[in-house]
């Protein structure tokens, strides 16, 4: 075995929006090349890759799974992935293992939200995409388009998909779904569509053969190659010339037998582009002949004869015209040939693919430490080189990546090994209690040969070979019990597998939680982490119906956590078991799995726990005012510790929105930088900025992002306020030199600034100065400003208080962390706030000699606690004073609705406090696409309600998108006359939405809720009954 075998491998995945036909397409590919696991008659109906009961019941795919196919002399590993948003983590795991991606788009529905997501995923993972335009039959039978109209529609989709790819390529894209709103859809009108010349740069070009036109349901499809080959002799042109001419505005002049552009044809001519004339029109004719009552049945015979199709008489004589049509079409233009020949031709083999992908998989490390062990570095370099070359020789280091763990019932495992020996599957290492389910690793071998029985190192994503001993917990040794090739649900044991293959591995259940790198050496870095597009946000608390089942539930949760790459299981501060899932469908499946497979007990599930944040009112319009108040004003909240020795003053201001967003999105990176872990952690950065070139330092990138954020906050406003905006920005830049800490948990979107030194009192008290640690780390401040501090403090050094003030700094910061973790409204974290805390310490009145030393230290302990509480209370008080607001999470929602259901759909949206952003008619179809923001708290049961009210005709997809402050004042009580007139005198006003949400959270958390049950009930009068 050698390179030439590896060159014959293709690892591909199918990616698309939900229901665009991935599993149906996979069925046909399996039927044609899967070695008989699926009968061609069942292709498209069985949905072979959806082998879970729940998948079949709901008819959606929920996990990615792989199957090995043989096409000609090629080995193709095909991974089917889910399209539903709730399972998009499975798309990440599929893309990581693949080199090529078939991106499907429904020709009727066009590009959708998840199409964007999968294109982005393939781009991030450097997977080579090919476009498959599916459901062409719907253009003919459902929409009844003419060939010319169909062509325009296809052209538009190709154009749109290319537009999306080019935004990724030019690195202009924004990280969130809002970019979809700014997407290229619908900006091309029909007149100029035709004149669009394909750009050389376009990713997808039918003339290059990386776009296929298919009908997965009926099993036919083609690329332009098929037709170019066929017409070459007929038209007397070369195949390659025809390939170029069969897309775009190219026309055939029958008189001159020349291919010409539109101009050369002259106006008024009724000529159609060659794609319409030679490709679509014949298709349409066949469909008409078969399905229309007046169709010319001779057309079918002509096709059968001229292409020499052998169709069994049973199908030929079938009364159902659809069956005859399918029989003809699937033999004339077999789907699997069209798609797989495209795969083989346009998608890279593992050797070329890995050299392309290595920069993403194993980014080059920046080694700052000059004294690093050169042996380790040399070996790590060898590993990177063999991954780059996809070296499949037995001597090469063995490197594999596990993208997820999945559970299989142990009884489903093959009973015999590769040599036919009988295996005892029940001696699973997890002990008897877990033997019903066995965990397999879904992995790809990137270098060397993997053997069953081999011992390998399991490296977690945090492993660093240069930090020897301290890294023990991130590396383990494990024995691979078995290696399997995957056939959907079926597993085929093998003794070994080589680089470039996708396998399932048994024996790692105890070693890997979700993903890991396997390696034959300790001396290499783990693969970079996968990028997930959403975070699990839907959280519920779970408890067993019978408290005695607690043990079973905990075991079940542990198993579920391992089996599903995307759930998060945590224990809340109040001791509840909290399960976080990506969305409702995902949650429902997790609960079902828990009940039926993993815990096997009956469960109580709480209503969803929604997260909120707390902030204060304000926007950039009064930024100048805010800044003034913040830096000088006397608008502070004061607290004095109970021993009277420390006075704390806190001021708060809102952060500019983009800065908040940057801080929030860069949390991982910030924690690395602040924690001083940087050096090799380009990894976490890469998930955020893909534009990072290999030699740019992450700190620099982050600093630039922060400065850019300020720029976009202040300098995008209108022209006449430019001066002021510039001033604000400068002030902010100055402020950013004083970042003492971020919070909560050291990395959140709230800033603590060090106090202004000029504000020192001269009444014998000492201010806790602090030092701008974060600014220094980020390079926003340099040591010269830090030495200023040193200058000030050196004069104070003589004072005995100085030491005490310095030692109290950490309690002050803890107070800030506590406050930002739990705001005053309902103990939810604060969001986008800037604080200045001035703490003045006065000398102790007690003489040092007066008390025992241990009493003194006890006193000191008490004092630190008091400062912490006082700072926390003061911060919370400051927020309450500055018009607090509740911030809620919003889903970006894409809805598709037929025109007649627009009314009910809007009714549902209105009930859910949704904000509609845009509504767009789909050309040539009765569908409307509506984009809206829906608050997370209102989203439960949203899809169900929508389905009920629109008789199942509308569909909605939700993606978590952003945080938004509710404009309402939660403490609003009508005061002025007008307000009383409008809202009543306060006794009869219902609590506003913000208040209601806050109360609900407070009740859940067991915090006091101020509520008057009945205030002015009308007195019930019993009328005297006079008899
Ligand atoms: N008319 C028509 N229907 C199709 C075609 N391909 C698939 N379908 C139908 O589209 C629906 C969805 O097909 P699936 O293959 O399950 O779609 P999927 O992309 O795997 O869906 P998820 O895995 O849930 O994202 C099914 O009802 C199919 O019968 C086609 O070419 N023409
Ligand atoms: Mg599917």
From TrEMBL:
Q: Tell me the leader sequence span.
A: none
Keywords for this protein: GTP-binding, Nucleotide-binding
For the Tr-type G domain, which residue ranges apply?
7-239
- Whether Nucleotide-binding counts among this entry's keywords is yes
Designated name of the protein = Tr-type G domain-containing protein
Q: Identify the species of origin.
A: Hibiscus sabdariffa (roselle)
Where is the organism placed in the taxonomic lineage, from the top? Eukaryota, Viridiplantae, Streptophyta, Embryophyta, Tracheophyta
């Amino acid at each position: 075995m050698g390179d030439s075998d590896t060159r014959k491998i293709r690892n591909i995945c199918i990616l698309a929006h939900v229901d665009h036909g991935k599993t149906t397409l996979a069925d046909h590919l399996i039927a044609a090349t899967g070695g008989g696991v699926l009968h061609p008659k069942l292709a498209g109906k069985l949905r072979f890759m959806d082998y879970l009961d729940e998948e079949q019941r709901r008819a959606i795919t929920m996990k990615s799974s792989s199957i090995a196919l043989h096409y000609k002399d090629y080995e193709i590993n095909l991974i089917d992935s889910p399209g539903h948003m709730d399972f998009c983590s499975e798309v990440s795991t599929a893309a990581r293992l693949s080199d090529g991606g078939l991106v499907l788009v429904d020709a009727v529905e066009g590009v959708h939200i998840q199409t964007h997501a999968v294109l982005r995923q393939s781009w991030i993972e450097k997977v080579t995409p090919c476009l498959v335009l599916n459901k062409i039959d719907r253009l003919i039978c459902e929409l009844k388009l003419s060939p010319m109209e169909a062509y325009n529609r296809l052209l538009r989709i190709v154009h749109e998909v290319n537009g999306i790819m080019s935004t990724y390529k030019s690195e202009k894209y924004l990280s969130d779904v809002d970019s979809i709103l700014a997407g290229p859809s619908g900006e091309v009108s029909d007149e100029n569509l035709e004149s669009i010349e394909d750009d050389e740069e376009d990713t997808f070009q039918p003339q290059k053969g990386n776009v296929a036109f298919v009908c997965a349901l009926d099993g036919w499809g083609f690329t332009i190659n098929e037709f170019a080959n066929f017409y070459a002799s007929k038209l007397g042109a070369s195949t390659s010339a025809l390939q170029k001419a069969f897309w775009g505005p190219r026309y055939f002049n029958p008189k001159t037998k020349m291919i010409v552009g539109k101009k050369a044809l002259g106006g008024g001519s009724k000529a159609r582009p060659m794609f319409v004339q030679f490709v679509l029109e014949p298709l349409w004719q066949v469909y008409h002949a078969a399905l229309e009552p007046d169709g010319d049945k001779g057309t079918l015979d002509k096709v059968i004869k001229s292409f020499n199709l052998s169709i069994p008489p049973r199908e030929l004589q079938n009364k159902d015209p659809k069956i005859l049509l399918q029989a003809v079409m699937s033999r004339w233009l077999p789907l699997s040939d069209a798609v797989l020949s495209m795969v083989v031709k346009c998608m890279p083999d593992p050797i070329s693919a890995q050299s392309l992908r290595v920069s993403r998989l194993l980014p080059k490390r920046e080694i700052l430490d000059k004294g690093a062990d050169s042996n380790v570095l040399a070996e790590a370099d060898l590993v990177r080189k063999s991954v780059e070359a996809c070296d499949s020789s037995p001597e090469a280091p063995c490197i594999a990546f596990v993208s997820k763990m999945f559970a299989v019932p142990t009884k489903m495992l093959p009973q015999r090994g590769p040599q036919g020996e009988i295996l005892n599957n029940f001696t699973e290492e997890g002990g008897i209690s877990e033997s019903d389910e066995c965990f397999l690793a879904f992995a790809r071998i990137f270098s060397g040969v993997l053997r069953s029985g081999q011992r390998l190192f399991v490296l977690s994503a945090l492993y660093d070979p240069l930090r020897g001993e301290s890294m023990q917990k991130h590396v383990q040794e494990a024995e691979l019990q078995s290696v399997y090739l995957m056939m959907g649900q079926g597993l085929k044991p093998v003794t070994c597998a080589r680089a470039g293959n996708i396998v399932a591995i048994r024996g790692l259940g105890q070693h890997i939680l979700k993903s890991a790198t396997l390696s034959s050496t300790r001396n290499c870095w783990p693969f970079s982490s996968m990028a997930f597009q959403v975070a699990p946000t839907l959280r519920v608390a779970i408890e067993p119906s019978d408290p005695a089942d607690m043990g079973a539930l905990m075991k079940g949760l542990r198993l579920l956590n391992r089996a599903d790459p995307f759930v998060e299981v945590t224990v809340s501060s109040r001791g509840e078991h909290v399960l976080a899932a990506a969305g409702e469908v995902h949650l429902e499946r997790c609960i079902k799995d828990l009940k039926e497979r993993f815990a096997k007990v009956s469960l109580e599930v709480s209503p969803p726990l929604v997260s909120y944040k707390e902030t204060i009112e304000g926007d950039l319009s009064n930024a100048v005012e805010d800044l003034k108040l913040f830096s000088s004003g006397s608008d502070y909240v004061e607290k004095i510790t109970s021993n009277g020795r420390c006075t704390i003053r806190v001021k708060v201001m809102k952060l500019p929105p983009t800065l908040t967003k940057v801080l929030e999105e860069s949390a991982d990176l910030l924690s690395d930088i602040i924690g001083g872990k940087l050096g090799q952690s380009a990894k976490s950065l890469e998930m955020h900025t893909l534009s990072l070139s290999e030699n740019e330092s992450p700190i620099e990138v982050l600093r630039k992002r922060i400065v850019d954020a300020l720029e976009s906050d202040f300098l995008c406003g209108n022209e006449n306020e430019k001066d002021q905006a510039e001033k604000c920005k400068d002030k902010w830049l100055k402020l950013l030199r004083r970042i003492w800490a971020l919070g909560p948990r050291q990395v959140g979107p709230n800033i603590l600034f060090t106090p202004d030194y000029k504000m020192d009192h001269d009444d014998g008290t000492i201010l806790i100065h602090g030092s701008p640690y974060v600014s220094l780390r980020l390079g926003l401040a340099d040591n010269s400003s830090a030495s200023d501090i040193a200058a000030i403090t050196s004069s104070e050094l003589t004072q005995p208080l100085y030491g005490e003030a310095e030692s109290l700094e950490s309690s002050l910061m803890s107070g800030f962390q506590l406050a930002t973790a739990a705001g005053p409204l309902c103990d939810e974290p604060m969001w986008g706030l800037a604080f200045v805390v001035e703490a003045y310490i006065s000398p102790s009145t007690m003489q040092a000699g007066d008390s025992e030393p241990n009493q003194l230290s006890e006193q000191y302990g008490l004092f630190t606690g008091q400062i912490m509480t006082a700072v926390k209370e003061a911060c919370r008080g400051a927020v309450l004073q500055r018009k607090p607001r509740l911030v809620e999470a919003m889903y970006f929602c894409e809805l598709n609705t037929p025109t007649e259901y627009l009314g009910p759909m809007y009714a549902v949206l209105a009930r859910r406090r949704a904000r509609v952003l845009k509504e767009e008619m789909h050309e040539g179809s009765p569908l409307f696409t509506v984009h809206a923001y829906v608050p997370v708290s209102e989203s439960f049961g949203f899809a169900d309600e929508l389905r009920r009210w629109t008789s199942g005709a509308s569909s909605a997809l939700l993606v978590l998108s952003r945080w938004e402050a509710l404009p309402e004042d939660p403490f609003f009580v009508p005061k002025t006359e007008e307000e009383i007139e409008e809202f009543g005198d306060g006794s009869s006003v219902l609590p506003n939405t913000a208040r209601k949400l806050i109360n609900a959270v407070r009740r859940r958390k067991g915090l006091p809720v101020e509520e008057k049950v009945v205030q002015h009930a009308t007195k019930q009068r019993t009328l005297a009954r006079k008899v």
